Amino acid sequence: MKIGLLGMGTIGSGVFEIAQKLDGIEVKKVLEKRFQADYITDKIEDITTDPEIELVVETMGGLHPAYEFASEVLKNGKHFVTANKLLVSAYGEELTALAHEKGVAFLYGAACGGGIAYLANLKIAREIDRVTALGGILNGTTNYILDSMQSRDMDYAQALSEAQALGYAERDPSSDVDGLDTQRKLILASSVGFDAYIKPEDIPTRGISAVKMADVTYARAHNLVIRLCARAERNAEGAISAYVEPTLVAANAPEAAILVNVNYAWYSGESYGLMSYIGQGAGKLPTAANVLRDVQSVSAGARYMTSENCKRVQPDNSAACHPYYIRIADASAIPAEWIARSEVLDGETCIETVPVSVQEMHNLMANHKDAFFAGIQRG
Known about the structure:
The chain is of the alpha/beta class. The protein is about 35% helix and about 25% strand. It has a nine-stranded mixed sheet, with helices on both faces. Strand 11 and strand 12 form a beta hairpin. The longest helix has 18 residues. It starts with a strand and ends with a strand.
C-alpha cells in the first residue's frame, strides 16, 4: 500500500522511519514545508489527487488545517489514519460520517494511549461484550508531575519545570495540567467503547494546577496517592457518566503503581471483566508504531472505530457519587451536610466529604479555582 504522510515532526518522522522496515507499506509523498526531498511536497493536492496513494496518515496535530486536510482526503476517496486527539474529539463524528459516505476507512487508534493499543482492543471488546466502564491515567505529563511531588518531595512548580525540561510538558502546559488532554482522550474512548459521542463541555473536568505539597502530606497520612484519572461508566439502563478529576487512590491500587510519565488505560466488560493496559502514552516510536498498526488494519479490511449505532449522548453525572477530598481556604463554602471530617493543614482546611455527585462537586468548585479537590477511591 502506498501512503501519503501529513507532517514530518516527531510522530511523522517515526512513522516514516518504521515504514521503511515494513513490507507492503511505502510512504510515497510527505506534506512538509521545512525539508526538501523528492518525496516531499508543500501542496496537499499532490497527495489527495495522486491515484497511487490509497491511504493518508496525519501526524500534524492541531485543529487547522488538520480538519480541512482530513476532509479533503476523505472526499477524494482515500483512507485516513490519524493520531490527532484534538481533531477526533472535535470532529470525529463528522469525519466518520464522511468516511462512511465515501466508503473509506477512518481509524485513530494512536490518538488515545499513544503507544498503547488501547482503542483497538476496546473496539474488539465492544464488538463481543457490553463494556460497562472505562478510563484510567491517560496523560503522562500530569502523572510525571504528581509522581515527582509524591516520590521526590518536589513542589508543583519544580515538578512542572522538570517535565518541561525533559520534553514531557509543553511551554504552555495548560492542555495537560488543566485536564483537557485527558478529557479529549476520554471522548475518544467513550465513542469506541460505548458507541457514544460526548461533547467536551458535557464532561466535568478538573486538572492538577492547584495541587500543593499540603495535599501530598494529607494523602500520605491517609495511605493514599494522588493521580489524575478519567472515568466513564454505563449503567444497566444505558445512561452514561463521564468525568476527569484528580483522585486519591489507595496506596495498593493499580493507579498508585503508575510512575513517571507512564499511562494506565482500562475498561471493564460484563464478560471480560477488568482489562488493563500499561505503557508509553506518547513518544515518537511507540505512537508511530500504533499509527502503522492502524495502516495495516486498513489493509486487512478494518474501516471504522465506531459502529453504525454510534450516536450523540448527553451524560448524566448526577448519578455518579463518591466521597471527595477538598483543601480550601474558606471552609464555609462547603455545605455543612457534605462534611464527614476535617482538619487544618498549613492554614487551610482539609475536608473529606460524604458521597457527593460528580456534577454537584464540579459545579460548586468551579467558583473556587485556587482550591484543590479530588475524588476518593479507597476500595
